[in-house]
Amino acid sequence: MQQQKPIVPAAAARSLSCDGEIDAALRHLRSADPLLSPLISRHVRPTFDSTTHPPFLALARSILYQQLAYKAGTSIYTRFVSLCGGENGVVPATVLALTPPQLRQIGVSGRKASYLHDLARKYQNGILSDEGIVDLDDKSLFTMLTMVNGIGSWSVHMFMIFSLHRPDVLPINDLGVRKGVQLLYGLEELPRPSQMEQLCEKWRPYRSVGAWYMWRFAEAKGPPQPVSTSGGGAVTAGSTLQLQNQEEEPQQQQQQFMDPINGILNIGRSFVFMLGTITGIYVSQNYNVPNIKKLMDTGVAMAKDVEERYRKPKKNQDDQLGGE
User: Which intervals hold domain HhH-GPD (predicted)?
Assistant: First the structure.
């Protein structure tokens, strides 16, 4: 059976798991944002274990845990690994060989099965690779990974922080981080994602560590959350997934609220599209207007483009924190 090969990051000097990198991050954050200094003193410092899963395995694991309680996710993940012949056997060829009925027998839904297969196909086709993922810069990596069905911006940010240990990642859509920023700066409302970039700009190039303290701050101000830590505050795989599931419930509520609105918008867009088409046909048949066909075709194309623009966020809305 094909085995996973260990991946050595090309940009290891920037990894938060490198010696002295957390110390450098804390010095910078204390200096750049005095409001963070008391938080840094109050909470245990984050540590990042240099031993991590290969990217393909980590991404597959992320998909499997989507919208599941940690215990349920662990149960399914354990059965999935067993089906692949162990963690070293979780490779694209093995995953592609698993049929939806096989995956369904271990508790993986049809949608998640399609996500796993899409991830594996992009590896098999050479679009993605473990080596390429490790070597890509943050922006390129974000673009490449969000091409995978079932992996949205939030999942990519968590992967970059907790699997690749990238130092300058800001999860602008994470409710925990946004809540922490709201509390830190005394804002009346949760900051919008666009505001998050501006408010946290001073944390560069260590926004990942700043985000870690926002989670701690939000947890301290809210109901106690069972976060698994070890080694002086290291965020383990288990706690990462607990953080993920803490975020999913509000997202699901938001989705339930947005569905009726999206339905109304879809009806409205369909009506405008139909009205424009009928008007164009009527005018073209009853008036001798030069280039009316070209104008009508342009209007139809624009209407389709608007509809497509509204449809595109739907994928990220489903994926962002794992779509089940």
Answer: 64-219
Partners of 47 in the β-ladder? 234
Question: How many helices (H) and strands (E) would you count in the chain?
Answer: 15, 2
**Separation CA 199–CA 184 (nearest Å):** 10
Of 164, 183, 199, the residue that ends a domain is: 164
Q: Of 164, 193, 211, which marks where a domain is finished? A: 164
Domain that holds residue 305: 273-310
Name which of 67, 73, 228 is nearest 150 in CA terms.
67
Reported pTM:
0.69
Q: Using one digit for the tens of pLDDT, what is the confidence trace for 56-110?
A: 999 999 999 999 999 999 999 999 999 999 999 999 999 999 999 999 999 999 9
Average pLDDT, the chain: 77
Give the DSSP letter of residue 167.
S
For 128-153, what is the mean pLDDT? 97
Average pLDDT (128-137) is: 96
What lies within 8 Å, CB to CB, of 124 at 6+ separation is 92, 93, 96
CATH no. for residue 130? 1.10.340.30
Copy the structure tokens of residue 318.
């489903």
Can you spell out the DSSP letters for 83-121? Answer: HHTSGGG-SHHHHHHS-HHHHHHTT--HHHHHHHHHHHH
What distance in Å separates the CA atoms of residue 130 and residue 148, rounded to the nearest whole number?
Answer: 14
What's the pLDDT tens digit per position in 283-319? Answer: 445 555 444 444 455 444 444 444 444 444 444 444 4
Instruction: Quote the CA–CA distance of 146 and 199 in Å, as a whole number.
Output: 25
Beta strands in 216-276 (DSSP E): 229-230, 234-235
Q: How far apart are CA 207 and CA 202, in angstroms?
A: 9
